[in-house]
Structure formats: structure tokens, C-alpha cells
Specification:
Elements: E1 2-4, H1 8-24, E2 31-36, H2 84-88, H3 108-116, H4 125-141, E3 147-152, E4 156-160, E5 167-171, E6 178-180, E7 183-185, H5 196-208, E8 211-213, E9 231-235, H6 239-248, E10 255-258, E11 264-267, E12 274-279, H7 306-314, H8 321-344, H9 353-362, H10 368-377, H11 387-391, H12 402-421, H13 427-439, H14 442-447, H15 453-472, H16 477-488, E13 492-497, E14 500-504, E15 509-513, E16 521-524, E17 526-529, H17 543-550, E18 556-560, E19 565-571, E20 579-582, E21 587-594, H18 615-632, E22 648-650, E23 653-660
Parallel strand pairs: 1-2, 1-7, 2-3, 7-21, 8-17, 9-12, 9-17, 12-13
Antiparallel strand pairs: 4-5, 5-6, 10-11, 14-15, 15-16, 18-19, 18-23, 20-21, 22-23
Helix pairs in contact: 1-4, 1-18, 8-13, 12-16
Protein name: Adenylate cyclase
Organism: Streptomyces seoulensis
InterPro entries: HpyO/CreE_NAD-binding, L-asp_N-monooxygenase_NS-form
Amino acid sequence: MVIVGAGPRATGLLERIGANAPELWSGAHELRVHLVDPHPPGPGRVWRDEQSSLLRMNSMAEDVTMFTDESSTVDGPVRPGPSLAEWAAQFAAPDAPRFAPYAEPADPEVLAELRTLVPAGFPTRRAQSAYLDWVFRRALADLPPTVTVEWHRTTATSVTGPADGPQEVRLAGRSTPLRADLVILTQGHLDSTPAPAHRVHTDFARRHGRFHLPPAFSADADLSGLRPGEDVVLRGFGLAFVDLTVLLTEGRGGAYRTEPDGTLTYLPSGREPVLHVGSRRGVPYHAKTGYQLQGPRPPLPRYFGPEAVDALTAGGEPLDLRRDVWPLMAKEIGFGHYHELFHAHPERTAMPWPEFLAAYDQFGWYSAQLAGLVATAVPEPADRLDFETLDRPLDGLVFDTPDAFQEHLRAYFREDLARREDPEHSADLGAFLALLSLYGQLPGLVASGRLTARSLADGLDGWWQGFFNFLASGPPGFRLRELDALSRAGVVRFLGADIRVGTDEATGTFTATSPTVPGHTVHATALIEAYLPGPNLDRTEDPLLRHLHRAGALAEEVVVDDTHRHRSGRITVSLADGHLIDPGLGRPHPRRIALGAPTDSRAIAAFARPRTNAPAFRQNDTVARAVLRALDAGWEPHVGGPHVREPHVGGHGPHVREPHVAETHVAEAHMPEADVAKPVDCARVGT
């Protein structure tokens, strides 16, 4: 078996192979697993140790695990393991319980961090790298003796082979391909060449000697071309913006000082550019909560579980996300919010929880009855869930001067930070947990083929993903405190909502405007697209996917109805088991599987918060069991069947899920020489 991509997703799959092997692997054969990745196995590219120690996770240490637990509904055995916080605790004291295989991280800086890491702390990415490295080593140690793993420190460039025979995986810098019964793609988030709109700005920057950065991974971006004091427009206010700001401030020698009154002050180094930031909403992502639930955990899901999705998709009518699906999703989030409010803060409610819940069950989310119920039962408006205000906090607001807007936005995220740090508002955490629970139901909704193409494009991949990230994927609270200090120091300036970026040929500058501050235009000599590249098979920089796509051996997810055609850029897979849909076969390819971010499973995260029945763990378990059964039997090909997505014709016109393949075939790209392959040097005996 060849696994392309050796990051957390591959590690999770290996962990499940080890967990299921006692039941499903007879040991009659030897299973050789080849991991192909130029980056270290376990952390992979995104979480590798070789990145700035200033960059942090946006999750608390106690909220990160790679292991199944009592909440996991998997067919294989549950094998609990430590969260990042529990694993780090073993380094705090000499007599602390050890997790095998025990070894202190070699980097003294990382070890010092782990020794002082508290469960509610936000670790550096390098600390997470050490945890993922250990999880990988443990997964290797748990494999049976007849399963061996070898790491090839290079890049896979192509895979060929018949559906009923061995596959050949070619590697950069190698003349001999790897032969395999099965190939699994777990590359994670991938780079793409710039979209046409970004190439226009790149060409403008080249003509005028300016700086332009298309969407990129912040840790890998070359920011050396930005000059001290240079005006830079950043389009995007999420996690990529946070990372870029850190690298351009503290990363250039700036520092923070805490004043006697607790206020944070930024001390510039003089090497920073001036950062002008705006986005569609015009505000930063909400900070992560800094507390635990104060009441019992809400029993999720209640309104948007498998039964609800089955009922939604059973009819013949196409589904509109905002009209048909979102009310159930919103009601689920509301349930998590009010469950915590009524149980943890009953003094702020005006009726018993059973009475409220009985009525809440009966009414639709947008009904007047539900609005009346909430108004009666929750006297304080600040305790009610208002999605419209949350989603567009600057709507209807206009400021006469840029300075007036700076003051308003600083007050906005100071208030947000105070709320996210105060357990009196723990209902927000209840809503967050319900928000997470929705993700496990979305693949089935998409696979049904009932969502209209516009709902998939503008709703699920557009508005919903942005809204989810805005509420659930924000930075640690201290980052907003730093942003406040940077704003007061004049290093960061806020542009507003719905920003428009243009170019001025006369001055050779990028321009940025926002209706939030009418009449105000920023001229800048640099433009940064402060967000990650999305999936795109036409523009992917991954050579293996590019080869498969141009050879017509994989399909892009395309959804068509009578008004819209949506190409998502994602790989179409059988959502039940991850097999690639092969247009030439007209069914899933029996020997090729793809998991994770580039697929139409909608980027199920490779690691998760404990006790959330993580979808990725369930998928890893399903795939591991199928793989072990097939390989142990001497290989019985997967034949697709019910996992193939059939065209669906709805009541309002055709809604067809069709494959899209590239129309031209090009020669395999030349790849530079890579490091010589070497076995993992940290595995159990026999690897």
C-alpha cells in the first residue's frame, strides 16, 4: 500500500489499521506501507517543526486529540489516547505518568513549552508538531509484526495501473516506481497557482515594481519584499491574517509590554509595514472561548442528525440551503446555546427548561412563535442567539472618518474578547459545540444530490463555510488583545466591510475602499490576499493530482441544475469509503482512495476535540477495515455499487452531479532531485 501524504490524516489511518488488525489481519501476508511525503511523517507540511515559534494553534491544548474515545461510533475498537494537554503533562514533573513510546522532544524550546503548557493554553504549532510526531510513533508501535512502514522523503508525481491490477506510483528523482495493490491519497491542504483575478494583480505589481501575494500558506510565504513603513492592503480577516500580522510585527522584532493597568502596548521595531485590513464582514473572527461548559453537555444532535438529513433528502424536490436546511441547522445551534444558558445560568431565564424545550421542539426557527418563546423565556437580549447580527455586525453602520471607525472596531473586539473570556456567557460554548456537530451530517446531505448547484456554491462552500469559520475557527483571545495594541500603535488600520480592491495605473498603487467609511481610499504599494488557496484541480500544484486530472483518471465535483453549474475544484470520491470516482470506469476505482481536504467530503479535520464523535475518525476506521479485509484476502477489488452518485432530476428541472475531467493531456512535469528514500528510524523493531 502506498499512502501519498504523511501528515495527520495518514497517521490517523495508520492508527486505525493498528487498532483493527487484531480482528481483520491474519498475518498470512506481509503488508508493506510506503509513506510518500517530503515533510516529516506525523506533522506533515502544515504542522512541521521547521516554522516560526511565534505561530500558534487556534485550539486549546485540551481540545486537540488524535484518538477515538467513548463518543466514537466506529465499528472497530475504541483505543483512547491522550489529548495534546494530557500528553504534554508527562514532561511537567519527573514522576508524571508516561505515555509510551516515551521520549522528550529534542528541541529545548519545545520541551520548555510543553513543561508549562496548561490545558486551556494555546500551544505553538511546533508543540503540536511534537505531539503529532509522537502519535505517529505510537501508531507504528501498535502495528503487528507483519505490517512494515517505510518513509520516502520525496514527492509522488503520478499513479498508473489497471483497475484490476497493481498500481505504479512514480516518485520525483527516482527511476523505479513503487508497485502497490492500493494507493491512498492523504495530501491535505494543497497549493494552487493563482486564479486569473490574482494574476491580474501579479502582473500589475510586476509592471510597477510593487508587491503582490496571492492566497498562500502563511508559514511558507516570502514576506521579505515588504519594506518598513510600506502601506500594505490585506484582504481577509481570518486566521491567515492573524499569522501574517504576527510574522510582520513580532517576526520583525516588535514586542508587547503589559502596562500596570493590564493594557497591552506594542513597541515597534521600525521594520514593520503599515497593514490596512478589510474583508466581507470587516471584522476579525470571533475569539475562541476561554472556559468550559458550566452545565451538562448538550445531547447532540437533536434537530439536524442522520434522521433529519434522511427526511430532508427523501423527497424529490431540490433543496435550497438557506430555505430548507439552514433553519434546522440554526435550531440545532440554538439548542446548544439555550441548553447551556438554562442549565448553567437559570437565574437569567424566566421558565423551567422542560417547559421551554417542549415549546422549542414545536416551532420552526424563523417562526413568530419561536421568537415569542425566546423573548419570554430569555429576558436579556444579550442572552439570545441572533445570527443575523452575528454574521454581519457592520451592516447599516457608516462612519464619517477612518479614525472614528478604528475606535468603533477596537471597542467591538474588546467586547467580543470580554464575552469569550467570561464563563457567564458560556452559552456561546454550547452554541459552538452544536456548530461542530453539524459538520458530521453535511457529507450525507451533499452526497444525496438534492442540494441545488447554487446552494452548494454560494451556500455550503460560500456563506456557510465562511460563517462557520467566523464563529468557530477564530484566534486565541490574546491575539485580539494584540490586535488592539497594534491598532493603537498605528501598525494596523481597519478598512471596513465589503472592501473593493483596485489598481491605479497613474500612481502604480493598489487601492482599497469600503462603504463603511464612504469617500475614503487607501493607496498601497503592496497587496496580500490573506486567506488560504481553495481546492482547484485545474490549478493544483500537486503533481500527482495534476497528472491524474489531465489524464482523465479522476473527476472534479460538478453540480448542475436548471439555473447554475458549480465546479467546486474538489476530487469526487465515494463518500462511504473514499474511493476515487474514475470517469473512465464510470464507477469508483477499486485501487485508489482519497481522504481529507481536497475531496468533496468537505475537508473533515484530521484531528478533533475530544468526545465529539469526530467524522474523520469514523471515516478512517471505515477505510482501514475495508483495506485490511481486501488485502488480507489476497485483494478483492471494490466494485462501487451503491456508492456511485446517480443523476437526480428534481421537480424544478435537472440537478445532475456530473464528473468533470480536463480535456487535454500533458506530459509529466519534470521534478527536481529529492532526498534518498529512507525507512522511518523511529519505528518498532522490524520496520
